[in-house]
Design a protein that fits this description.
7 helices, membrane, DUF1980_N, 3-stranded antiparallel β-sheet
């Protein structure tokens, strides 16, 4: 004969998985609503992560349904006087090992949820640059020995003198186009948009920008190769997520550089010059004014591979 008996263990497994899935979905939604998600992933990835939270909710509902269905399972009652489950019963030590495995697996999923609830959302700054090193844009060799290399001229309705000034090799055309745009500005503002691209363009054509006024806001960082009276004002750049962030910055020259502590945020206005770093020539800013600044809510900048098509 047969009857139905509660199967609480299996139902608990499904229900607990559903709770974990809801926890991750809720975490994504909270980060999205508060804006803290941009501390971990780039804006172009956000729609995919939000869509993933919907999938997680659907999976959670599925787990709760399985939990309800598994609350009752068939058992067999025989003449021997005790019950046998339709599945073969595990030995006690096997059940114990299975329990330990479940605790370990569930713990791996619960740990990030607990840490996200206990720890505040923070952004990385100069401390990460110590390990990754500061990127200061493309360098111009002091003597590359290729002065006779064939150069090409930018196409388009541009002042002939400006086109001649930014004649370059084919792989530099996009940065030449941006360089011409920056060259015509009274003050070059290193805002979040195209921060990396502007840094690259100025460094690739650093001779053209000598004496131009520029302003930049970022955190203070120091490198062992810097000369006295120099510091770096940098920003953290993110391509896809926090795992690929990298620091970018510009050398700033000022008399009282030691007065500004590492990781302090400042706004620097000055004129563009160039300096030698190792065997490279890169841009520098000769500061004319410095002000304390507050980091933005999302202190990262993002590369734009299609910037040239937007100019």
């Amino acid at each position: 004969m047969s009857r139905w008996k509660p199967a609480h263990a299996e139902a608990f497994d499904h229900a607990f998985r559903g709770v974990i899935l809801i926890g991750f979905a809720a975490l994504i939604i909270i980060l999205w609503q508060t804006g803290d998600m941009l501390l971990y992933i780039a804006p172009n990835v956000v729609p995919y992560v939000v869509a993933a939270s919907v999938v997680l909710l659907v999976l959670a509902v599925s787990q709760f349904r399985l939990a309800a269905l598994s609350l009752w399972q068939r058992v067999i009652v025989c003449d021997c006087g005790h019950e046998h489950e339709s599945d073969n019963a595990d030995h006690n030590h096997e059940r114990s090992n299975r329990l330990l495995r479940k605790v370990g697996v569930y713990g791996l999923f619960l740990l990030p949820l607990l840490l996200s609830a206990a720890l505040p959302s923070t952004a990385f700054a100069g401390s990460l640059a110590v390990n990754k090193g500061m990127n200061m844009g493309a360098s111009v060799p002091i003597d590359d020995g290729k002065a006779d290399m064939e150069l090409v001229e930018l196409e388009g309705n541009v002042d002939p003198g400006l086109k001649e000034l930014f004649r370059t090799q084919p792989y530099n055309l996009d940065y030449a186009k941006l360089g011409m745009l920056l060259y015509q500005q009274d003050t070059i503002e290193m805002k979040d948009q195209w921060f990396i691209e502007k840094l690259e363009a100025i460094n690739r054509f650093v001779d053209n920008f000598q004496g131009k006024t520029i302003t930049i806001t970022g955190f203070v960082y120091r490198d062992k190769q810097l000369a006295g009276g120099q510091l770096i004002v940098g920003r953290m750049a993110m391509t896809h997520c926090i795992a690929d962030i990298a620091p970018y910055g510009m050398i700033v020259e000022l008399p009282d550089a030691d007065a500004y502590p590492d990781d302090a945020w400042i706004t620097v206005t000055g004129t563009i010059g160039k300096t030698q770093l190792g065997e490279r020539q890169i841009m520098k800013i000769v500061a004319t004014s410095i002000e304390e600044a507050q980091p933005s809510a999302v202190p990262y900048v993002y590369p734009d591979n299609d910037f040239a098509s937007k100019i």
